[in-house]
Design brief:
Elements (H helix, E strand, L loop, with lengths): L7 H10 L4 H19 L2 E3 L2 H10 L10 E5 L27 H8 L3 E6 L33 H8 L6 E4 L6 H7 L2 E4 L20 E5 L2 H11 L29 E5 L9 H16 L3 E5 L7 H16 L18 H12 L2 H14 L5 H21 L5 E5 L15 H6 L5 H6 L2 E11 L5 E10 L4 H11 L1
Parallel strand pairs: 2-3, 2-4, 7-8, 7-9
Antiparallel strand pairs: 1-3, 4-6, 5-6, 5-10, 9-11, 10-11
């Protein structure tokens, strides 16, 4: 097995034994990127020499000592570009600081290495919305890797990265993890600091790991979780040992199957794989319980009011004045604003800014944004009631496997509707993970990965990871 295809846990054992060095891992990754990323398109940039300097100073006694971890290109790392997949920041912004998660990785001994492609400003679920190039699915290069953390998922799946961090606002870690056949974890809102993450929708965004194994996800979460005074939404709550109960299995646990997640619209082949995974957990000693999440049908509409509204506010800072792309010399302020944003933002970002600005405007705020927040509370209550009956919830991640590139270019609504199974966890602020549960036939000679989604209560990551490990 090559070093680039190894798990974090395996590499840590080899490093501790002195069988390899951090430079060996970096050399293997660099060679793999040079030979394969031209086809995949996962990386926007990487700096091997900077990584070597970090490797020379890495403390191999630390939990992630000597392990390179790639970053989605909306997470700041000192001295690195941070483009968010947008023309607005391309060649126009170098980060002057580390995001809290980047600093936490360094503190744990890891080496931040490489900037990964994404849908522009994390708005999309295919990575086709990146202004800086398209990423494809390693399982089938004619298909999407998912998004918006498509570069992160594709890099891990193609062994172009040992592991990566992504961000999840409505499924942007879990959906590409499912499509690419890797593990993708969205922690509870407030479990991981968002300081240094370029904001999309501040009440929904969360940073999390994409890895080759559940154990690796636990290792990464252990490193990045915890309180941060620089993020007022980050919780000052004790961080448990996520590895302690990882192998205890699911015997005696009650696992919910929401009837709303297995009905109309799901590909029968996807449903079959997810139900088979649930039956295996039942055979391992879990009790399967049918539950209801009655407000699921309103989740997509609720999300596509709240998220664009917050995006329109957050992206107002990109004005062509302080940093990023600027049109003209700035002598005409309004024209500078208008042309800079017109030229810098892509069509999907513009669509969401316009929608968000509209639902926040006078006369529409109460009819849309205020009402959406009330429905959000009902969705959260559905989960609270469900977790009074079960320890975790099982569901599909996506109703379909990875679609073909370009298939929904003229149909953004279909793209939005495909997020039906992932959005609710963000609205409720709870944790969820995608674990590979098999593949289905594409119909053209390739096998497409399918993910099982395990959903846990707020701050229930230890239980979530235990179920995910049993499923794995």
């Amino acid at each position: 097995m090559s070093l680039s295809s190894s798990t974090i846990a395996s590499l840590r054992r080899q490093l501790s034994a002195g069988d390899i060095t951090p430079d060996d891992i970096l050399d293997d990754l660099a060679a793999r990127i040079a030979s394969h990323d031209g086809e995949i398109g996962a990386y926007l940039s990487h700096d091997l020499e900077a990584a070597r300097r970090d490797a020379a100073a890495s403390d191999l006694s630390k939990p992630l000592g000597g392990i390179p971890i790639a970053l989605k290109d909306n997470i700041n790392a000192l001295g690195s570009p941070c483009t968010c997949g947008s023309r607005f920041l391309e060649n126009a912004y170098t980060s002057p600081y580390d995001a809290s998660v980047t600093a936490a990785l360094r503190q744990a001994g890891a080496i931040p290495f490489g900037r990964l492609n994404m849908d522009e400003f994390a708005m999309g679920s295919s990575t086709e919305n990146s202004a800086l190039g398209r990423t494809v699915n390693p399982a089938d290069p004619t298909r999407i890797p998912g998004g918006s953390s498509g570069g992160s998922a594709a890099a891990v799946a193609a062994d172009l990265a040992v592991a990566a961090l992504g961000s999840d606002t409505g499924g942007s870690i879990r959906q590409p993890a499912s499509h690419c056949g890797v593990v993708g974890l969205k922690p509870s809102y407030g479990r991981v600091s968002r300081y240094g993450l370029v904001a999309f929708a501040s009440s929904l965004d969360q940073i999390g790991p994409l890895t080759k194994s559940v154990e690796d996800s636990a290792l990464l979460l252990q490193a990045i979780a915890g309180a941060d005074p620089r993020d007022s939404t980050c919780l000052d709550a004790a961080v448990p040992d996520y590895l302690a109960d990882l192998d205890k299995g699911v015997a005696g646990m009650r696992l919910g199957l929401p009837k709303e997640y297995f009905g109309e619209g799901i590909d029968p082949a996807v449903r079959e794989k997810v139900e088979a995974a649930a039956r295996k957990l039942e055979a391992a000693g879990a009790e399967l319980v049918e539950i209801s999440l009655p407000h699921t049908e309103h989740a997509v509409a609720t999300y596509y009011i709240i998220a664009p509204a917050e995006a329109s506010s957050n992206l107002s800072r990109f004005d062509g004045i302080r940093y990023g792309r600027r049109h003209g010399d700035g002598s005409d302020l309004i024209e500078t604003y208008r042309r800079s944003r017109e030229e810098g933002f892509g069509p999907e970002v513009k669509r969401r800014i316009i929608l968000g600005t509209w639902v926040l405007s006078s006369g529409y705020y109460d009819a849309y944004y205020s009402r959406a927040q009330k429905v959000r509370a009902l969705i959260r209550r559905d989960f609270d009631e469900a977790f009074g009956k079960v320890d975790a919830i099982l569901s599909p991640v996506s109703p379909v496997a990875a679609r073909r590139l370009g298939e929904n270019d003229d149909d953004p609504l279909s793209e939005y509707l495909a997020d039906i199974y992932t959005i609710a966890a963000n609205l409720a602020g709870i944790c969820a993970v995608s674990v590979p549960c098999g593949t289905i036939d594409s119909g053209s000679g390739t096998q497409l990965p399918v993910g099982l989604q395990v959903i846990g209560p707020h701050l229930g990551e230890a239980t979530l990871l235990r179920v995910a490990k049993a499923a794995e």
